[in-house]
Write a structure and sequence with these properties.
The complex is a heterotrimer of chains A (about 300), B (about 300) and C (about 325).
Chain A lengths: L2 H8 L12 H22 L6 H21 L16 H44 L5 H28 L13 H36 L5 H17 L1 H18 L9 H36 L9
Chain B lengths: L5 H16 L11 H11 L6 E7 L5 H17 L3 E6 L5 H18 L11 E6 L3 H10 L1 H4 L4 E3 L5 E3 L17 E6 L3 H9 L5 E5 L4 H9 L6 E3 H14 L5 E2 L2 E2 L19 H33 L5
Helix pairs in contact in B: 1-10, 2-9, 3-4, 3-9, 5-7, 9-10
Chain C lengths: L14 H24 L9 H16 L3 E6 L5 H19 L4 E5 L2 H17 L11 E3 L4 H15 L3 E7 L3 H11 L3 E6 L5 H7 L2 E4 L2 H10 L2 H32 L2 E2 L1 E4 L2 E4 L11 E2 L6 H6 L5 H4 L20
Parallel strand pairs in C: 1-2, 1-4, 2-3, 4-5, 5-6
Antiparallel strand pairs in C: 7-10, 8-9
Classes of the chains: A mainly alpha (about 300), B alpha/beta (about 300), C alpha/beta (about 325).
Chain lengths: ~300, ~300, ~325
């Protein structure tokens, strides 16, 4: 079993969250599995009037490690992997800091499972459309075909690169097989290009939005349009350079340095640093406080909206 | 005229933008102060520094981010710095970065410059899900955050990343000299929140993200930032002419109040930025024209209705 | 005796951050309690975007077309939950007029959550049969695939109103302009300050910044939510006062002279002049108390020997075969 030493090497030291592979670990894995199944069964039998408390309880537990790690004294200058805590308070600090990684992993695993739920929704809607020959069912066939094709070819390519090719030969195009070419064509040739195309379409939308939105209807709209124009002009280097030079020579000739304020660059800088940046900071403060309040309400189960 | 068919506007845009791409030209400009700070910060790193590169862009924003990433690679390779790259935003980002690095390495090899090798001059860490957790643990314990990651070596083997020459002397994040975030999203915010007290951060961001990054630049939480396509061209311009360095007709190309910052002597300087910058001018001119036309149309319509303008 | 505040986050003046957060938390909780007890009808200023919800649904009902709702493309976090909560109110109004709704998700977790919430709304209204598989649907977790899918839906179903609330990125303008092209009323709000300008340019009604978080309190007038909103306002006043005091303090301090400057986590002496005379300089930003409050100064001697710990024994075989 030559995998064993390399796995051992990764587990530098045992902690509550990391066990050296061996009977102890396998026992814990089995115990975890059994507990998980029992928990799932128990949860599915929870009466509906208890549902709210189950959700509130789980939400509280999920948020607790982060709050505790934020408030509990974090051991100073500590290496959580290799050092031994000096006292009880540090012990808890070590435990909480070591917990951050596994808690993040649990979230990722749950998100992975939820992707299955999303996948089910997508397939169900489009399968029903095709089956009942609803309007635009042709598009649904295209979607389902692409879905299957991409998944199969992607997994096949991954399997070849990970398990079959151990020397890294497939990193060179000359050694590719048909599967690798098809994967490259689907991912690089189609998907990535369509992604870029979708993004570049924003240019068109910006143009039509500019045509229809920046109208001088009110004082506010006029101010907004004027500042937008100055910032757009500032991006045109050739123009700002020529205008800047003209202003500089005018200022030098007339010996009036006040004129320098009329350089587009200077004006745009002023707009950005005096108007835009403080406004963004203010909005960010508001949004941050809003998120904190929302997070707090969710964590403590005060938010009624989402929980039945 | 109040309602011009969208397709007409779109057609004009396509034609104007495409024509611009065929005539790349060096346009005299005055780089933004934030771009100058970025260039000066990277150029002032001692030769052979270790740089963390967080590359959070994919092909969708390559119009801006590709130019930024290429410029960064050329600058780092010119200073013979070692670098580590990873993404904390998109699983596709590391692959996009790998492709670009391979191209820049080949380009520099052809130009007779030092050939960068994986595992020796740079390390590829791949993708980390959850930017917040990643950046937090990098700040708390770099070795734990990157534990278990392997790097390829020039001879095709795999070794632990902390045994490569790039990271051999790095134990904590403070042992690296700079972190550069190339992003099209707000992953830069997270990096600043979690790491700005431990390492100098600089950024290369898209035009849309730019405004949210400037507050960090103003408060010196990041040492420099190049924004959007203008930022790409700014950095290329600075690579070509330096700051307080190259002269034309007795005047410096680029000036600032700070000390002289050398231009880049070898390798490619002007690239994507120069290619696209003319087009940006055309597109912006068209945008301004659209705004003007929209207003003219509105006033014309009002007049027709007999309203007082 | 062990000092309980001897944690990394409390060293030097770093405790200010934790203390400020706790102050904000306390003000929010206090006001929630106050609102629950008092039950007074607290005033919330008019938010145009939220008043437009009923108009938009009315229009959709008249035209017999669906209402589209998108909670952004972010993961399941406070933003998405808030967006879905607002959508629950929208759905409630729509259900009363039997107007169909479409809620498109880019995150599977948000999808699972939204499905529960929206189904509950229909159940509450006694219209379980109107909750169809396509009422809440997962489209794609890839940004532009999602954008393409949703704009296709806007075109095909000719939606009468779109609600774009949540964390949006580059796709914001695609949705807003596509909706405009089919003549839909758009109500938008993003917590991303990068996207708000696009929404302002292209949408009919926009919630700016934390108006987004005020929305559910505004729509439901639930004491908990209204109280929390008042708490946020207290916190905002607290932040504004801190900024004012900080600015004044910093300005006063920067005029003083000093012979030492802070460089990273060290203090360095001002260099001597050629005649060996030490010159004083003005304080720099990093030397000030205000700067130190938010950027703790932990000299090495403070942590060097005080926190030495024993090393754990390395298990056998751990160093072997690492490559």
């Amino acid at each position: 079993m030559n995998l064993f030493p390399s796995m051992m090497a990764q587990v530098v030291e045992e902690s509550f969250f990391k066990k050296v592979p061996g009977p102890g670990l396998y026992g814990l894995l089995a115990l975890g599995l059994i507990l998980g199944i029992v928990l799932c069964l128990a949860l599915s039998r929870v009466p509906s009037n208890m549902r709210r408390w189950v959700i509130v309880g789980f939400t509280f537990l999920a948020g607790l490690p982060y709050v505790a790690a934020y408030l509990w004294p974090t051991p100073v200058a500590a290496d959580f992997q290799t050092e031994i805590p000096r006292n009880g308070v540090e012990k808890v600090g070590f435990f909480l800091n070591q917990a951050m990684d596994p808690v993040g992993t649990i979230t990722n695993i749950i998100q992975g499972f939820l992707l299955g739920v999303g996948f089910y929704s997508l397939v169900r809607i489009h399968y029903t459309k095709v089956k009942r020959r609803q309007e635009n069912w042709g598009f649904s066939i295209v979607l389902l075909t692409c879905f299957v094709l991409m998944a199969v070819i992607g997994l096949w390519d991954w399997q070849m690169r990970t398990f079959v090719d151990t020397t890294g030969a497939l990193n060179v195009r000359d050694n590719w097989t048909a599967v690798n070419y098809i994967q490259d064509f689907l991912f690089e040739g189609i998907y990535q290009q369509m992604d870029s195309a979708m993004f570049s379409m924003i240019a068109f939308f910006i143009l039509s939005a500019a045509y229809r939105a920046f109208r001088i209807r009110s004082v506010e709209a006029t101010v907004m349009m004027a500042s937008a124009l100055i910032l757009m002009l500032n991006l045109m280097g050739a123009l700002t350079f020529a205008q800047g030079n003209a202003i500089e020579s005018l200022a030098a000739n007339s010996n009036n340095m006040f004129l320098m304020n009329f350089k587009i660059n200077t004006f745009a800088d002023w707009l950005r640093s005096t108007m835009q940046i403080p406004a963004i900071r203010a909005i960010d403060f508001g949004v941050g406080l809003g998120a904190l309040a929302m997070g707090l309400r969710l964590w403590l189960g005060l938010e009624k909206g989402g929980v039945t | 005229m109040q309602k011009v068919d969208r397709r007409v506007l779109y057609g004009i845009l396509v034609v104007c933008v495409c024509v611009g791409l065929f005539f790349p030209s060096t346009i005299r400009t005055d780089p933004d102060p934030s771009s100058k700070s970025f260039y000066a910060a990277v150029k002032s790193l001692p030769q052979g520094s270790t740089i963390i590169v967080q590359t959070d862009w994919t092909n969708s924003t390559r119009g801006e981010s590709l130019g930024h990433f290429e410029n960064l690679m050329r600058l780092l390779m010119d200073g013979e710095h070692k670098f580590i790259f990873y993404s904390a935003a998109d699983p596709a980002a590391p692959q996009v970065a790998r492709t670009v690095i391979a191209r820049i390495v080949a380009e520099r090899k052809e130009q007779g410059l030092k050939e960068y090798k994986i595992g020796e001059d740079y390390v590829d860490l791949g993708f980390f899900p959850n930017a917040e957790a990643t950046n937090t643990s990098m700040g708390a314990n770099l070795k734990a955050a990157w534990a278990g990651r392997k790097s390829k070596t020039p001879d095709g083997k795999e070794i632990d990343i902390f045994k490569t020459p790039v990271l051999a002397k790095v134990n904590k994040i403070e042992d690296c000299q700079m972190m550069v975030v190339i992003t099209a999203s707000q992953s830069i915010d997270i990096a600043v929140q979690r790491l700005a007290q431990k390492i100098d951060i600089t950024a290369l961001v898209t035009g849309v993200v730019g405004p949210t990054v400037l507050p960090f630049y103003q408060s010196q939480q990041i040492k420099g930032v190049a924004v959007g396509l203008k930022g790409v061209y700014d950095i290329e311009y600075l690579m070509e002419y330096g700051i307080n360095d190259a002269e034309i007709e007795g005047r410096k190309y680029v000036t600032w109040d700070g000390p002289k910052v050398d231009k880049v002597e070898q390798g490619t300087r002007f690239s994507r930025g120069r290619q696209y910058y003319g087009t940006l001018h055309v597109a912006l001119a068209l945008l301004i024209l659209a705004v003007v036309m929209g207003n003219v149309a509105m006033f014309a319509a009002r007049r027709r209705k007999g309203e007082q303008v | 005796m062990f000092n309980w505040l001897e944690g990394q986050q409390y060293l030097d003046t770093g405790w200010v951050g934790v203390f400020a957060t706790l102050m904000v938390v306390a003000s929010i909780l206090f006001n929630i309690r106050r609102a629950e007890k008092g039950g007074k009808n607290l005033f919330i200023r008019r938010i145009a975007g939220l008043n437009a919800i009923d108009d938009a649904i009315g229009r959709a009902t008249e035209m017999g077309r669906p209402v589209l709702m998108v909670p952004g493309i972010g993961a399941l976090d406070a933003i998405s939950v808030q967006a879905v909560n607002i959508f629950a109110q929208v759905t409630k109004s729509a259900a009363q007029f039997s107007t169909p709704v479409r809620l498109c998700c880019a995150s599977a977790a948000v999808y699972a959550y939204a499905q529960e919430v929206i189904r509950d709304v229909y159940t509450e209204q006694g219209m379980t049969d109107r909750f169809l598989p396509e009422t809440v649907q997962f489209v794609s977790d890839q940004q532009f695939a999602f954008a393409a899918g949703v704009s296709g839906m806007i075109h095909r179903e000719k939606v009468a109103a779109t609600f774009l609330l949540g964390a949006f990125y580059a796709e914001s303008l695609i949705f807003a302009e596509t909706s405009n092209a089919v003549g839909a009323i758009q109500v938008a709000g993003s917590t991303q300050s990068t996207q708000t300008p696009f929404f302002i340019a292209a949408c009919d009604y926009v919630l700016i910044g934390d108006e987004f978080y005020a929305a559910s309190a505004y729509l439901t007038r639930d004491p908990v939510l209204v109280g929390s909103l008042v708490g946020q306002d207290w916190a905002k006043i607290f932040v504004a006062c801190t900024i004012m005091l900080g600015t004044l303090g910093l300005s006063a301090e920067l005029t003083q002279m000093t012979s030492t400057h802070r460089s990273g986590n060290k203090m360095v002496e001002v260099s001597e002049s050629s005649e060996g005379k030490r010159t004083e300089e003005r304080k720099k930003g990093a030397d000030t108390v205000v700067s130190r409050i938010f950027k703790p100064y932990i000299p090495e001697e403070m942590t060097k020997d005080r926190f030495t710990r024993e090393k754990k024994p390395v298990p056998e075989g751990a160093e072997a075969g690492g490559e």
